[in-house]
């Protein structure tokens, strides 16, 4: 059973720019929590570095590459050279959101009763394997997406502890029937009730008039692996996938 929590998140605002991110340590090898912690902290530090006036898209992509380097250094220093993490981040400025991701942690936009996945999962044919992650010695190329937001939209970032058990339509229905905080708690509870095979982290935000976001209380729940052998094997294969040639998605 997984006794530790390998999910991490960060919420930071500076100068009217909001950054939210979720990282999930890749299972099957030690040090997932080290990788996830390094990923979110370096991401925020590098994104908000002084004097960077480039477009949000460029700043976020570079910050995610810097997070990859930070994970490699932290993992080596901690004695976990194979440690790795997913990373999904959203930056909101006014009525515009820029989303970047590595791995299978996801971002959803909930609008008019429907949830649309904004990110693409970087999964592999190997069960439980991912093709892009923070902690890759070959370097990383994050996907970056841009969306215009409307009043009433809800933005959701989550680790796969949620999406293993809860479908997009259920995310939309659960948030639509409740206040934001209550809805986040209900999503985590639903994932746990259906097996709770992994840590579950959910960040949700509501867009108000003028494009500003009202952040919910962050909900974090620790689940339990019920299929230890299968998940450990899949995670180990995900780490071994680092040795394969890197083929980024166009």
Q: How does this structure look, described?
A:
This protein is of the alpha+beta class. It has one domain: PPM-type phosphatase domain (Phosphatase 2c, domain 1, 4-Layer Sandwich), CATH 3.60.40.10. Helices cover 32% and strands 27% of the residues. Strands 5, 6, 8, 9, 10 and 11 form a six-stranded antiparallel beta sheet that branches. A hairpin with a 5-residue loop joins β9 and β10. The protein is globular, with a radius of gyration of 17 Å. It starts with 6 loop residues before the first strand and ends in a 10-residue tail after the last helix. The relative contact order is 0.18.
SSE blueprint and pairings:
Elements: E1 7-14, E2 17-25, H1 32-47, H2 56-78, E3 85-93, E4 96-102, E5 106-111, E6 114-117, E7 143-148, E8 154-158, H3 160-163, H4 168-176, H5 180-193, E9 200-207, E10 213-215, E11 219-221, H6 228-240
Antiparallel strand pairs: 1-2, 2-3, 3-4, 4-7, 5-6, 5-8, 8-9, 9-10, 9-11
